[in-house]
Amino acid sequence: MSKRYQFPENFLWGGATAANQLEGGYKEGGKGLNTPDVLPGGKVRLNVLKDPGFDFELNNELYTYPNHEAIDFYHRYKEDIALFAEMGFKSFRMSISWSRIFPKGDEATPNEEGLAFYDRVFDELLKYGIEPVVTISHYEMPLHLVKEYGGWRDRQVVTFFERYVTTLFNRYKNKVKYWMTFNEINSSFHMPILGLGFAIQKEEDHYQPTFQAYHHQFVASARAVQLCHEIIPNSQIGCMIVYLPTYSVDSNPENVLYAFQEEQLLNYFCGDVQVRGQYPSFIKRYWKEHGIELEIQPGDLELLKEHTVDYVSFSYYMSRTEKKDKNPEEVGEGNILGGIKNPFLKTSEWGWEIDPIGLRISLNQLYDRYQKPLFVVENGLGAYDKIEEDGSINDHYRIDYLREHIKAMGEAIEDGVDLMGYTSWGCIDLVSASTGEMSKRYGYIYVDKHDDGSGTLNRMKKKSFDWYQKVIETNGENLS
Asked: Where is the active site (predicted)?
């Protein structure tokens, strides 16, 4: 008999998405252009994300832009939310498009059409008893702030962000009680275009602008926490990081130390500031060794200390294996954030290593460090899905993946971890953030949209739809 797991009574089962990957309507309702609107589709996107010369301009002759229509949630949200409700979702993690609310980002007054759209989405969710879990900035910002201010390089963006969050909290204070500030904030070490709104120029030192922009985001995040608690007293607001437990390739102390230091920088630097309220001791040596001197204004450090987050949310897709001196051929195909191939792990069709035990390790590591409630807000399998002749989509591989990761969460809860919810990534097929593809599908719901832009946009249930419905109905007891 298979083991049954006991999840908390009010566990927030659900799914996760991002505005720029599913909404579409990129010029509708008064929305301004944002950074994802100028990111091309296809695997060329990865090259663009790492291109120091990227100019944030549209080039329709050279590229396609799948985010412009995405899966048209902008017009089909009622249909999609009804399907989420049929699965039994307790929560739906979504994001708000900053440029839908402030089209340029630096206006004094918001765009009413954009605010009204999210009113309708929240009302539809609440009609079914689904709690909105809202990311305030998910890999996007108004393009005007990038071109005129250099993204988060400029301290003025903190003021614009404060105006944005104040507008959101006042408008939706009776509809949304779970918030997050910046999506996968720590990923900007590798892809600043997504999170920080700028490309590192060839003649420029990588470290100084990145850490200065991080400081601006930390100040903005702390101010958002302060405002959220003031405007919505019964709310909870968290940070969000991408977490990869980091293994040493062997027991060589040099490799162990290298893996440890890589884990500190990627997994804990941003979390320590937002959860503990101060810069960690290890980062000060790092700054010294890389010649980094931050411009910190009076009151900044006090703000960080006094306004820490209520919970820690994170994405988990894979672990990371490291060694001090690695050859290019040792690097795993799908290891966007570094690391080498782990010979003990299988990979997805995109080369992402599959490691459910790593999720249990992650949950324990994070809870031991922070002692605050945790929330797994992204986890899932990107795969090619095939429609059979009878119209069915037998994504058993996705069920297997999710089952093992949910088991790992159950084990972590038994270990004593305080886990508040699980929203698997891409509960409905959407545009991949890293590769701009539709063919990299994560959802329980298939969307008839393809990499070349063709398709009817019709929705179809996959086999995993019924499976996840039973998981939620039994509060994680029935995983078969």
From this structure: 378 (nucleophile)
**Is residue 336 predicted with pLDDT exceeding 80?**
no
Residue 2 lies in a domain: no
User: Looking at residue 160, what is its pLDDT?
Assistant: 98
User: Looking at residue 1, what is its pLDDT?
Assistant: 60
CATH of the domain at 165: 3.20.20.80
What is the span of the domain harbouring residue 357? 12-473
Q: Using one digit for the tens of pLDDT, what is the confidence trace for 381-392?
A: 999 999 999 999
CA distance 152 to 380: 30
| Residue 378 annotated among the catalytic residues of the structure | yes
Residue with tokens 């599908």: 441
The predicted model gives 193-213 an average pLDDT of 87
**Does residue 236 form part of some domain?**
yes
- The pLDDT value given to residue 337: 82
- The residue type at 330: E
CA–CA separation, 404 vs 395, rounded Å? 15
CB contact at 8 A, 122 and 168: no
The β-bridge relationship of strands 12-16 and 91-95 is: parallel
- Above 90 in pLDDT, residue 234? yes
For 38-97, list the strands marked E by DSSP: 91-95
Could you tell me if 401 and 416 are in contact, meaning their C-beta atoms sit under 8 angstroms apart?
Answer: no
Is 480 part of a structural domain of the chain?
Answer: no
Cα separation, 310 vs 137, in Å, equals 18
**Could you tell me the CA-to-CA distances from 318 to 166, 226, 379 in Å, in that order?**
35, 33, 9
Sign of CA dihedral 101, 159, 306, 240: positive
Selecting among 184, 353, 378, 411, the annotated active-site residue is 378
How far is the C-alpha of 425 from the C-alpha of 191, rounded, in Å?
20
Task: Give the total residue count for the chain.
Answer: 480
Predicted local confidence at residue 386, as pLDDT: 97
- Report angle CA 408, 314, 255 to the nearest 5 degrees: 75
